[in-house]
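Page header: ASSEMBLY MODEL / three components / 328 residues total.
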Amino acid sequence: MPEGHSVHRIARQFARNFVGRTVVASSPQGRFAAGASAVSGQNMVESWAVGKQMFIKFESGDWIRVHLGIYGAWDFAGSIELDATIASANGRMGQTNARGTVFDTDGENSLSSIGAPRKSRVRMGEQTTAGRVGESTTAVFPPNPVGQVRLRLMTDSVCADLRGPTACELLTEEQVLGVIARLGPDPQHDSGKLAQEKFVERLRKKSTPVGVQLMDQSVVAGIGNVYRAEILFRAWIDPYKPGNKLSLDEANALWKDWVKLLAIGVETGQMMTMDGLRGKKWEAAMANRADRHWVYKRDGLSCRKCGTNIRLDMMASRKLYWCPSCQT
DNA sequence: CATCGATGTTGAG
DNA sequence: TCAACCTCGATGG
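Prediction written out in full:
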């Protein structure tokens, strides 16, 4: 159940462990058999993400597009090398245990570290427990497929299993460009001022509530229900405010905050949206999801800023958490 | 053990 | 607007 940050992390893990290597592809479940056989035996040449979608390219020019949807996940197994950004973030947080397994108590950034060859399994895209990673060190390589594995990608040393995706399809380069053209800007993919301007322009064009538009992937790619609620609280903006009533400053600030939060998410693997936490408070929040957010899943609790009860509304059939007194 | 709900999107009506 | 997709951790009995 990833928002954009997780998908970028997964794409980086593929870049680190699969790009430049020959990949054996299969579909144990069968539903992607044709696509898998089309790319099997080829070199992977690119891996990156836009918003919540990942794109990997093979030497033939074929692409695979993966969208995890609400419960898709990748399981990594084997001798996994860490992406540099992820490794340094983990190092800074002191999360390496005696065995050399890097983990945290809430799982998503659980990753095996660079080091002695050993068997371990790593899940990305959904929460998992540190215990599970530790226990799995006895697994064999390659592991037997568990459940409905839509796509298995394997090198000599690493195996990645994809389960439960909303989308997994073989595309031509032209089709990839078509998909991306329909997506809004993503700070991790489109850097610079142009991306920001594109976002601001689209957001301020329609009278659709800003809380709806932040979830619209053609306005900005990668924001989901958690970041939506948190970004609006951090900006003290009423989620119902029409996009075309937002000031330029408000729209620019929303983008800048998304840039910042997304970068933290990509580095740490967690949606840490609380400000100004230092030392033990930061550690506590990183360890416990209930301490990580201003409003998300805090309905009925008092606002951390003003004490007002956090409200829960349905907006475009998703749960919206917000503070009616801070966000005006 | 059964049931619920989720960090998402599509497409039918 | 809402069911369907298809998975699994959390929750309750």
